[in-house]
């Protein structure tokens, strides 16, 4: 992710870092045999309207996802919910078991989340040459590949997470940042190739690992995948163009203030956000990596004596941002993190505390990006325009009942809250 900090003097850009999954490694070149890119895996895919295995059985269409919130239009004078989105870049189950840990925390606190899977976490080291990254040699990846145990554990977590109502997005594949072939230099067509390959590694993990009898992922990834976050928050312009052509619905690769979102390039712009930086006069981006760089530089194991303070600083900053929105304009709070135990796991501890603190409050909905996009899609455009007119932390002076008292436009047919259709 990009490291972005806003201070009183403006916005400063720091160095970026590729994030590796524990247990992944790069090494020798392996076989080219197996499923790759946009090629179809063995076997005919199930009809789109049928429940059954897809391709080689790596995925399976099992019907509508369970536990998805039902989006409804705001009524006249109703205060908007306070949405909070917790999301994870490169989501995979490594030796630290953080994927399974945060699934447990989410269940205990009535939350669903978005897990941005890196496709190479389902690609074994021996099949690394199946990945053809734009502007790089085949089999190249800044975050390595996976082994059979890592793939098996990650698939298990993806399956459970989806069945619990969480979203499986994508963080693409090789996590290339900066000059010399980084994602910021990719064309629209190169982004399409990267997206196709990210899908393929999910849809053909059984072929690529030989785990033919393992349980399938319970979703059609072509339907499931509706949004993404780019590596290092780079390459957004051409990614959005590619994503729109491919039917995706949102992007969360930008940096924004705590205001109500709008569409950008045809996609919901659900950008990362700047929140008050506890102990500082400026603001910081809502991601653990940015806090770490400010606190210990690129040293992931900084001074042990400072780790508790560093974690508390992340926690307190996110809570400041939450309170500013909760008591103000009610703009959704977007938080992005990594399954990493940087600085002794202090940021993971802090996230536990934030989730437990905010997700059980009245009027708060801790949802995935899919849940937020679904809700935005059914709102009256005029209502959203009014909400966007509120500044950071600004509550309506006359109160919510008066602020949103205007008669909303009729909801389209099929949208919750629409008038009944006469036979």
TrEMBL record:
<protein>
    <recommendedName>
        <fullName>Lipoprotein</fullName>
    </recommendedName>
</protein>
<keyword id="KW-0732">Signal</keyword>
<dbReference type="InterPro" id="IPR011330">
    <property type="entry name" value="Glyco_hydro/deAcase_b/a-brl"/>
</dbReference>
<dbReference type="GO" id="GO:0005975">
    <property type="term" value="P:carbohydrate metabolic process"/>
</dbReference>
<dbReference type="InterPro" id="IPR052740">
    <property type="entry name" value="CE4"/>
</dbReference>
<feature type="signal peptide">
    <location>
        <begin position="1"/>
        <end position="22"/>
    </location>
</feature>
<feature type="region of interest" description="Disordered">
    <location>
        <begin position="55"/>
        <end position="76"/>
    </location>
</feature>
């Amino acid at each position: 992710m990009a490291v972005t900090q806003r201070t009183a003097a403006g916005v400063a850009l720091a160095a970026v870092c590729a994030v590796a999954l524990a247990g992944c490694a790069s090494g020798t070149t392996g076989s080219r045999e197996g499923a790759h890119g946009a090629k179809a895996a063995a076997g005919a895919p199930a009809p789109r309207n049928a429940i059954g295995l897809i391709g080689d059985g790596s995925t399976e269409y099992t019907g509508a996802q369970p536990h998805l919130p039902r989006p409804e239009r705001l009524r006249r004078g109703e205060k908007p919910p306070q949405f909070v989105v917790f999301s994870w870049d490169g989501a995979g189950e490594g030796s630290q078991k953080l994927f399974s840990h945060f699934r447990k925390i989410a269940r205990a606190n009535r939350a669903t989340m978005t897990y941005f899977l890196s496709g190479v976490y389902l690609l074994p080291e021996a099949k690394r040459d199946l990945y053809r990254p734009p502007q790089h040699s085949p089999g190249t990846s800044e975050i390595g590949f996976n082994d059979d145990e890592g793939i098996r554990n990650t698939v298990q977590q993806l399956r459970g997470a989806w069945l619990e109502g969480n979203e499986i997005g994508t963080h693409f594949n090789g996590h290339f940042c900066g000059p010399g072939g980084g994602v910021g230099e990719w064309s629209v067509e190169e982004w399409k190739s990267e997206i196709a390959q990210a899908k393929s590694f999910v849809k053909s993990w059984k072929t690529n690992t030989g785990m033919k009898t393992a349980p399938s992922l319970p979703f059609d990834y072509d339907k499931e995948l509706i949004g993404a976050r780019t590596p290092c928050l780079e390459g957004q312009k051409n990614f959005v163009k590619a994503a729109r052509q491919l039917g995706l619905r949102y992007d969360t690769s930008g940096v924004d203030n705590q205001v109500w979102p709008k569409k950008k390039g045809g996609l919901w712009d659900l950008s990362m956000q700047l929140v008050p930086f506890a102990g500082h006069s400026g603001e910081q981006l809502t991601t653990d990596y940015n806090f770490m760089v400010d606190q210990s530089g690129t040293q992931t194991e900084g001074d042990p004596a400072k780790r508790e303070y560093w974690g508390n600083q992340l926690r307190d900053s996110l809570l400041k941002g939450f309170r500013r929105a909760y008591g103000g304009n009610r703009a959704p709070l977007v938080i992005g993190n990594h399954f990493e135990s940087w600085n002794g796991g202090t940021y993971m501890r802090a996230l536990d505390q934030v989730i437990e603190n905010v997700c059980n409050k009245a009027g708060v909905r801790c949802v995935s990006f899919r849940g937020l996009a679904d809700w935005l899609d059914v709102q009256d455009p005029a209502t959203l325009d009014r909400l966007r007119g509120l500044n950071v932390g600004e509550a309506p002076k006359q109160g919510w009942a008066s602020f949103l008292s205007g008669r909303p436009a009729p909801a389209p047919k099929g949208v919750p809250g629409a008038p009944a259709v006469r036979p």
